[in-house]
Amino acid sequence: MKTLKCQPVITIALVSVNVVVFLMCSLDGGELYDRGRLDVFDVLINGEYGRILWAMFFHSGMSHIFNNMLILFFLGSMIERELGHIKYGFLYLASGIGGNLLSLWAKVVNNDISGSLGASGAIFGLDGVLLAMVLFSGRRMENVTPARVMLMVLYSLYSGFTGQNIDNAAHVGGLVTGFLAASVMIFLQRGRHRRNLTG
Fold it and tell me: Catalytic site residue 85?
C-alpha cells in the first residue's frame, strides 16, 4: 500500500491553535477557562454542549501544554503523513470528543462536579489510531511494531493512573474511540480495494 506523502499541516494547525488559546487564557485572568472547561453542570444542566469540543483546546499550565503538544507534534505528524489530512483530522477530533464524552459519563457516575480540560483524550486517540494501523492496515512504518505501540499505550495508561489530577476516563475514551474509528476506516478501505480488484 503506497504511503501518502504530505506535510503535517493539520498537526501544525492543531498545535498552533492550542498554543494561541493557552496564551490567551494566560492573559485574560481565567475567563476563557471558565467558558471552556468540561464539567457536568455546564454541559448537561446549562446545555453548553460545545464544551465537549472546546475543552480539548485548553490546558492548565505550561508543563501540561508542553507535554501534550510535544507528543501531538511528533505522533500526529507521523500519522497524518500516513493517512492524509482529512482522515487524520477526523480521527483526532473524534477521539477528543469520545474521550470527553466518557469523561462526562464518569463524572455523572461518580458525582464528580470538577472540571477538566486538555488535549490528552485526543492524543490518546492517536495512540489507538496507530495501534489499529500496525495491526490491520498492512502498512510498514520504520521502527513501528505492534509490540512497541502496545508498550507505549500501556506506559501512557500507567502514567495516567498513577498520576494526580488526571482525567483517566478521557484518556481511555480517546484511546478506544481512536482505535475503533481507525479500525472501521481501515476495514472499509480494504473492502473497497478488494471490490475494485474483483470488479
Answer: no
